[in-house]
Amino acid sequence: MSAKITCMKSHSPQTRRELLLRLSWLAMGAACAGFPIRLLAGDLAALDVAYAGSMGSMMEGPIKSSVAQGLKLDFHGRAQGSGALAQLIVGGAIRPDVFIPVTPGPALMVLRAGKADSAQPIAKTEMVIAYSPKSRFTSRFEAAAKGKEDLWKILLDPGLRFGRTDPVTDPQGRNIIFTVMLAAKAARQADLVEKILGSTINEKQIFTEPTVMARLQSGALDASSAYKIQPGPLNLPYVTLPKEINLSGQNVHADHPDVTLSVGGKTYSPEPLIYYASVLKESPNGKGAAAFIEWLKGAEAQSIFRHYNYDAPGDASSLHA
Predict the structure, then answer these.
(1) Nearest to 80 by CA among 62, 91, 94, 64
(2) Residues 135, 213: one domain?
């Protein structure tokens, strides 16, 4: 049973009090009669969360519903590339309660701007190569997934359509470049990056994150960069990569100090694919934000993470400015 008052502001104060009193009587009667009372969205405190676009299906699904039930918070998500979100927060264009990027870089940008005090590690992932079941290369990718064919030879095929995100605004756009750089270093094949990805900003390959996955589903792309968490919810297959190149290692930067990427006027180094959560200082709902981050580190949320193919953050440390 639910009740809703519309246009209450148009009534006099006395009328509004009478309407509210009647609503409370209706709710009490329903409870006594054993009817469930559905909470209206307005009954929950709003929680605005800006998060890495790769987290969309999990955040808008089980996380949103669990937070409403367990924390009584009305989750409002904003999914976008982590770097772009960090810039919006630092510039004051958006004021979310919580920021959850992937990789330390965007989190540190927000911390160093004085917008948050710390960033807590909550999960991690790794780079994979996702592919379309509708691709003419499907059988070859399946063989590569079983270790029976060289993945890089498939990606070098001139007829293959490959997708990735913008390395200027999205960490994943840089991470696929780092992954191929590390593969080139391991194979001692210096031109591998150029042959597979072309120029750093290759307009034929670069799409927004949701568009890349949609194009794989439709068959408009044969393969793309992806985090391990992304293909599963969309029923897309993928090929895992060796640990030494998939950016899952905590010390990837220290292990490869010679690997750097200059794009958009900045120089980047490879970073571990760890998701961090911060309560922003200007948070309209600081109490709810703090409770949410503690919940993210707890058993219920971590169980959801495992179901969606995220790995535990392991021994990753908190970040501070």
Answers:
(1) 94
(2) yes
